[in-house]
Design a protein that fits this description.
One of its GO terms (biological process) is pectin catabolic process. Belongs to the KduI family. By secondary structure, this protein is mainly beta. It has a single domain, classed as Sandwich (Jelly Rolls), CATH 2.60.120.10. The chain starts with a strand and ends in a 7-residue tail after the last strand.
Length: 280
């Protein structure tokens, strides 16, 4: 068996207030995203989102359905976003091959039946980060390079949050049902992401932190604005953010993270900002 999955139930703010460190990590941290020659998936009941990774090294990996979906193939009623954070690799979808280099993205629409993942070189394997959400109609599959992304520059060095936002699989770049994905790169000397923090009741989100240097870490902040919690995270780990929760982080070095989200609104700016002095 090359596909492994875990299930996470949705939890309320009231439950989260009483969680210790171990419980927070059990419910929200996706500790293992990439394993050689395996597909790792985490299915959360928040918007029925799936996040995970495919890391082909010596084998070609097939995206197969998992029991909770109760369908014949994975994308029968879903769409899939893929961003490669490893060596060059190839995703083949219903016979069409898409080569993805580092930090390039691919969208696969509902109804795609056969999906495989392969690395061009075993010495530098691809690491395909996967996000999937339920889909109501078919939109065409499409590769998105970094040159095709919508770029936004935010923050400043003075507030240690100078960052470049690469909107890859979002409205205006590509059509999707509800899935949106992008990548935020922090400049040297900046450590804070998504600050001021915000919530968005109409969408949930998952962050994948990567390019975290050896012996460094990221402290991810979550919870209601007046009742925040934190989770310490290592390189290439992901974290689930409920709609009621803030999602921000600060690292002991600069880093990069991929954000993926789903819900009832494709407006990227649909968020409720939490003023920094009001956070508790």
């Amino acid at each position: 068996m090359k596909t492994y999955y875990t299930l996470r139930q949705a939890v309320s703010p009231r439950e989260t207030k009483g969680m210790d460190t171990a419980a927070l990590r059990e419910n929200f941290l996706i500790q293992t995203v990439f394993q050689p020659d395996e597909i790792q998936l985490c299915y959360t009941q928040f918007d029925r989102y799936i996040a995970g990774g495919a890391m082909p090294v010596h084998e070609i990996l097939n995206l197969v359905t998992i029991p909770p979906l109760k369908v014949e193939y994975f994308l029968k009623r879903r769409e899939l976003g893929i961003i490669n954070i490893g060596g060059t690799g190839t995703v083949t979808a219903d016979g069409v091959a898409y080569e993805l280099q580092y930090k390039e993205a691919l969208y696969l629409g509902k109804g795609t039946q056969e999906v495989t993942f392969a690395s061009n070189q075993a010495e530098t394997p691809a690491k395909f980060y996967l996000n999937s959400a339920p889909a109501h109609q078919l939109y065409p599959s499409k590769k998105v390079t970094r040159a095709q992304a919508e770029i936004v520059e935010l923050g400043s060095l003075e507030t240690a949050n100078k960052r470049t936002i690469n909107k890859l699989l979002v409205a205006g770049v590509i059509q999707t049902c509800q899935l949106q994905m992008g990548m935020t790169e922090l400049q040297t000397g900046s450590v804070w992401n998504t600050m001021p923090a915000h919530t968005h009741d109409r969408r949930m989100e998952v962050y994948l932190y990567f390019e975290v240097p050896a012996n460094q870490a990221v402290c991810h902040f979550m919870g209601e604005p007046q009742e925040t919690r934190h989770i310490w995270m290592q390189n290439e780990q992901a974290v689930i953010s409920p709609p009621w929760s803030i999602h921000a982080g600060s690292g002991t070095s600069n880093y990069t993270f991929i954000w993926g989200m789903a819900g009832e609104n494709l407006d990227y700016g649909d968020m409720d900002v939490c003023p920094i002095p009001d956070l508790r």
